[in-house]
């Protein structure tokens, strides 16, 4: 039996009045334990397995100019993760879509970063048996955020490849979006130490895997390639495949070495947090003469144009 979703009218009369600490909480609205809350009041028990054991899955979709982008694909991935981790949600797909809509609508954001999370939760008896835990669903909408800032989007990101190896897929399935980020965070610190602005880390075979919150592509002689193994199948990555099919560019998922990345004609990263973002330096190598490449530029333009296409977007229903 699915739980009912509270109506928009049952929500807080003035979300802003409850906005206690602007330094820690961006303006936004969360849904937790069956009710809508200002971000500053969305709090989790320290006994939740999501916190204690990173026992959670999540997904992030963005809203751009009042429309969700590829919401169905994000819901599919979230649902697949929940099933694989043997979790249960008290909501069906339509109810989940309604909750996400309501978080955005109540926040008033026209462009938002919208996260849905399912944690293992905790057991009423503090049992150590995950089968006895009551899973917890949380969603929230906050302002849209990007991996790359405006300056980096214009001149391209400077990326350092770190020696850190991504957790093996045989241990944690990377196709389930997860919070096992200690490898990615370690990689970030190494990248900062090496003068980079963000990091790419390696797969267990020593090839390039992905970065903190993004996939990577290289362009060589007008053909594109992105790592196949040990990565999250990003929705933005999938979107690049779809765009390439539309405009007749060849793209494959296959191993990428550090040397190939440094010798590429163009490199870009992809994430819901920012879309398609150019890279103009890998370690000490300048890519594409330090400028955003023409194929990257074309894909970036198409990607944002698609946000108006009803086949790829869902309008938020504001009150
Ligand atoms: N890889 C990792 C580890 C991520 O966490 C993310 C997104 O957060 C991505 C790749 C990009 O996925 P998407 O394009 O679906 O945002």
N- to C-terminal distance: 28 Å
Question: What is the ordering of alpha helices and beta strands?
Answer: EEHEEHHEEHEHEEEHEHEEEHE
Q: Which whole number gives the mean pLDDT?
A: 94
Q: Given the helix and strand composition, which structural class is it?
A: alpha+beta
Question: Tell me about the biggest sheet?
Answer: 8 strands, mixed
**CATH class call of the largest domain:** Alpha Beta
Fraction of residues in helices? 25-40%
Question: Helical stretch count?
Answer: 8
Overall strand count: 15
The fourth-level CATH homologous superfamily of the largest domain is D-amino Acid Aminotransferase, subunit A, domain 2
Globular, elongated, flat, extended or rod-shaped: what is the shape? globular
Low-pLDDT stretches are none
**Rg, alpha carbons:** 20 Å
Report the CATH topology name of the largest domain: D-amino Acid Aminotransferase, Chain A, domain 2
Portion of residues in beta strands equals 25-35%
| Count of domains | 2
List the ligand species. Answer: pyridoxal-5'-phosphate
User: What is the CATH architecture annotation of the largest domain?
Assistant: Alpha-Beta Barrel
Fold blueprint:
Elements: E1 29-32, E2 35-38, H1 49-53, E3 56-64, E4 67-69, H2 71-84, H3 93-107, E5 112-122, E6 134-143, H4 150-155, E7 157-165, H5 182-193, E8 198-202, E9 215-220, E10 223-226, H6 235-247, E11 250-253, H7 258-262, E12 266-271, E13 275-282, E14 285-286, H8 294-305, E15 313-315
Parallel strand pairs: 7-8, 7-13, 10-11
Antiparallel strand pairs: 1-2, 1-6, 3-4, 3-5, 4-15, 5-6, 9-10, 9-12, 12-13, 13-14
The structure holds pyridoxal-5'-phosphate (PLP).
């Amino acid at each position: 039996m699915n739980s009912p979703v509270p109506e928009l009218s049952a929500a807080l009369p003035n979300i802003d009045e409850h906005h206690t600490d602007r330094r820690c909480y961006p303006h936004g609205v969360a849904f937790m334990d069956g009710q809508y809350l200002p971000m500053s009041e969305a709090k989790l028990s320290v006994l939740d397995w999501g916190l204690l054991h990173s026992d959670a899955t999540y997904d992030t979709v963005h809203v751009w100019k009042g429309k969700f982008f590829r919401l169905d694909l994000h819901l599919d991935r979230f649902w697949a993760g929940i099933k694989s981790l043997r979790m249960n949600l008290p909501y069906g797909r339509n109810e989940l879509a309604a909750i996400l809509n309501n978080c955005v609508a109540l926040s008033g954001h026209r462009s938002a970063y919208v996260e849905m999370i399912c944690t293992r939760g905790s057991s009423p008896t503090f049992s150590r048996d995950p089968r006895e835990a009551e899973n917890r669903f949380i969603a929230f909408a906050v302002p849209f955020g990007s991996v790359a800032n405006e300056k980096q989007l214009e001149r391209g990101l400077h990326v350092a490849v770190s020696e850190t190896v991504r957790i093996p897929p045989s241990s944690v399935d990377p196709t389930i979006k997860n919070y096992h980020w200690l490898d990615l965070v370690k990689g970030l610190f190494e990248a900062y130490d090496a003068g980079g602005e963000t990091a790419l880390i390696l797969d267990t075979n020593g090839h390039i895997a992905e970065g903190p919150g993004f996939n990577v592509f290289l362009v060589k002689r007008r053909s594109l390639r992105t790592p196949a193994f040990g990565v999250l199948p990003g929705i933005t990555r999938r979107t690049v495949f779809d765009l390439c099919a539309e405009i007749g560019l060849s793209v494959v998922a296959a191993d990428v070495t550090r040397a190939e990345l440094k010798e590429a004609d163009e490199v870009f990263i992809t994430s819901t947090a920012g879309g398609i973002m150019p890279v103009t330096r890998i370690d000490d190598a300048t890519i594409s003469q330090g400028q955003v490449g023409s194929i990257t530029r074309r894909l970036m333009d198409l990607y944002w144009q698609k946000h108006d296409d009803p086949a790829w977007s869902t309008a938020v229903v504001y009150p």
